[in-house]
Amino acid sequence: MIGAGLSGSAVAHSLAVRGWSVTVLDQAPGVGAGASGLPAGLAAPHVSPDDNVLSRITRAGVQATLQRAQVLLQSGTDWALTGVLEHKLAGKRKLPADPPDQHSAPASAAQIAAAGLPPGTPALWHAQAGWIRPRQLVAAQLQTPGVQVRWGQQVQGIERRGDEWAVTDAQGQTLGQAPFLVVASAFDSLALLRPLPGFAVPLNPLRGQVSFGRLADLTDAQRQRLPPFPVNGHGSFISGVPTPEGPPGWFMGATFERDCTQTPVRVEDHHANQLRLATLLPALGEAMATQFGPDRVHGWAGLRCSLPNRLPAVGPIDALRLPGLCLSTGMGARGISLAVLCGELTAAWLSQEALPLPAALLKHLAAERFASA
Ligand SMILES: Cc1cc2nc3c(=O)[nH]c(=O)nc-3n(C[C@H](O)[C@H](O)[C@H](O)COP(=O)(O)OP(=O)(O)OC[C@H]3O[C@@H](n4cnc5c(N)ncnc54)[C@H](O)[C@@H]3O)c2cc1C
Asked: Is pLDDT above 70 for 286?
């Protein structure tokens, strides 16, 4: 495996529980160097009036993630199945007339009021949804017996040697060799895979910044306005989740910036998140305006790795020209919701098991959809 983020750790876990021996190489010194270092994010379904492919795949993904969290993580500190209120701005995100399950429904008057939104605000309630601290999930998945992680290993080259794949560093030294190789190094996968024949996966970087602060630094009046569950719909607001330093905090994000590969935290992005909160939860946005000042707010920025149809690239790229080589990347803004499912798919592919998703959905995720002619 190359890459120990949500994607790589999920594949490693799914393979190891099937009895595989997995070595994960990551260039970073430890967990959470990439997008999966996000301090807190949401596992929440996508809905659409026609229950489109993205909605169906995301629903399956969220279910897989929540099940994994239930087994591996500590509720309340690492994740929580809180339910999520979706503020439907500008009529976005309608439910199908005949909803596929009971987990997403119009929000009740009490839920809308608890969020601090005016009566009658269009909103949905997603019961099977909640917050997760991705680092905790990554760390837990990497601890699966059978998974060995080697940090500080920057892969610069991938080559076929006989029946195996070898990965090399900048000096051409071999870092590892195995019959199967899974590339899960997010946007960096592009540079690693580009020299290989049959590869044409159009991965793009998508910068994002989250603004956050400690609950202890809020006034009583501000604390009283905090919704008791996460709210999304125009970015997302989460509170009561431990900050990276430990004490509970609030989190507002995230910005979206295409074609930027830089991740320093920026003052103007905090301002953009403040404006987002003012639209998402106007009363809270007004009450918390002072918290976004550079002397108070903390930030975290990272790069999502996205694909044109907002769905990842998973599994074999080209079984004939690149046998034994799989991808699990392109999670975009939904890695928390999708990486666990993609890990299960990749492991099922490599283990030649039945795949845990109908073929009609699978073809939209399969990396081989990008195989060049
Ligand atoms: C601001 C922001 C907010 C987000 N909010 C949410 C949210 O609320 N819900 C949600 O579902 N998703 C969210 N996401 C998306 C989610 O964080 C990502 O989709 C997910 O973390 C991607 O995981 P990954 O393992 O594919 O990539 P990464 O976490 O980036 O992992 C890639 C790993 O590969 C390693 N690597 C790279 N190149 C090499 C190399 N050459 N050799 C060795 N190792 C290498 C890196 O060190 C890194 O550890 C958000 C993302 C951002 C940036």
From this structure: yes
Mutate to test the pocket of ligand 1, among 336, 341, 345, 346 (most ligand atoms within 8 A of CB): 336
Return d(Cα 182, Cα 316) in angstroms, integer.
9
Q: Is the dihedral of CA 27, 207, 55, 311 positive or negative?
A: negative
CATH of range 6-34+136-203+308-370; options 3.50.50.60, 3.20.20.80, 1.10.3720.10, 3.90.1310.10: 3.50.50.60
Q: Kindly report the pTM of this predicted structure.
A: 0.97
Nearest CA to ligand 1 atom 3: 254
Q: How far apart are CA 93 and CA 260, in angstroms?
A: 28
Ligand 1: which residues within 6 Å by Cβ?
2-8, 25-28, 33-36, 38, 41-42, 134, 153-155, 184-186, 188, 192, 208-210, 236, 253-254, 302, 304-305, 329, 331-337, 339
Instruction: Pick the residue whose CA is nearest to atom 21 on ligand 1.
Output: 36
**Hey, where are the domains in the chain?**
6-34+136-203+308-370, 40-132+205-306
Residues 67-106 pLDDT 10s: 999 999 999 999 999 999 999 987 666 788 777 778 899 9
- For residue 26, report the distance from its CA to the centre of ligand 1, in Å: 12
